[in-house]
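User: Show me a protein chain along with its predicted structure.
Assistant: Here is one chain, sequence first, then structure tokens.
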Amino acid sequence: MTTTQTSVGSGTGRAPRGGVPGAGRRRGAPQRQSGAGWLFVTPVLVVLGLFLVVPIVMALWVSFTDWSGRGSPFSTGVGFVGTDNYRALLAGPGLSQQDFMISLRNTFYYVIGVVPLQTVGALLLAVIVNQRFLKGRTFFRTAFYFPSVVSSVAISLVFLFLFTGTGAVNRFLGIFGIDGPTWFSDPRGLIHLVGQGLGLWSIDQPPAGLNDTVVAGLPVWQWISGPSVALSAIMLQVVWTTTGTFMLMFIAALQDLPTEVEEAALVDGANRWQRFRNVTVPHLRPTILLVVTLGVIGTWQVFDQMYVMTQGGPAKTTLTPAYLSYQAAFGQQQWGQGAAIAFILFVLIFVLTSLQRFVLRDKDEAARKRAERRQRRQQRAAGSGAAA
């Protein structure tokens, strides 16, 4: 008996053109979905282009001109000066370079002081308030986080009253017989004060070798001054304000730590410090990297506190690149130089955060990825050799 085969096509026994039935419809579906996706994201792209990309391009152009802030920066009356604004800040001797280097020095000490303190403080607070036996954990979490949600301007005004010559801080120090300084009016550097206390030098008569040697427009004596007393008070305020935010990040990471791992370490006889160092901290490595990265970016961009509390004083010891950019553009009408400071700051932050991410990277994970890339290259080389 003969079996009659039913043709899939039009009675010819062949499949329809294109192979599998409905393949054309399936190929068209992703294209329609892609078109719909682009349709939905187009408004966002337009908004980002108008309010982010276009202003950045305009600011970059302004940094190469002598625009005075009047009229359009693209008008024919605006002169193109090339890299003169950048040269004046980085290489040209003068007040512009001196102020910019002072701002870099101040911000360097500010970053060195704030980022480690807020990172360690946030981690310790997170470990404390994450303990199961602690009563009122919700209250303490809210209390520690509360300064982060308050306006930085309001907090700055409060600290101005606390650190005045007759403020609460100096009155508290007076209980122990300590005559507190006039915090926000004291330009003396902490390293200078410590060296004077140890008898290494006198602030009024600095060592000639340090005071006469000039590096990047500033004497070495000024480079090693350390944060001023005024800047130190601002650093305390910023640490107190930002620690709560980073505490929440660490709490979220701690709650993601598998309890089985910690219990296994406890069974193995590890004490509390060993469990924290060998179990908790390695688990928190990505969060530590995130916190340090955000801290570095935020501290290099500091502006609010300097604007409200000191206006860059005393003696420019709280001057920062962000405030200097504002001062050059809005105060002195040197918009090209202000834009140049902003872009130099961007490059500096990008380089420092990239370096910090490289230093704090997971070396085991990086080695594993390198081994995988090496294996893929060897496989491709073997495949091409076999084909030849």
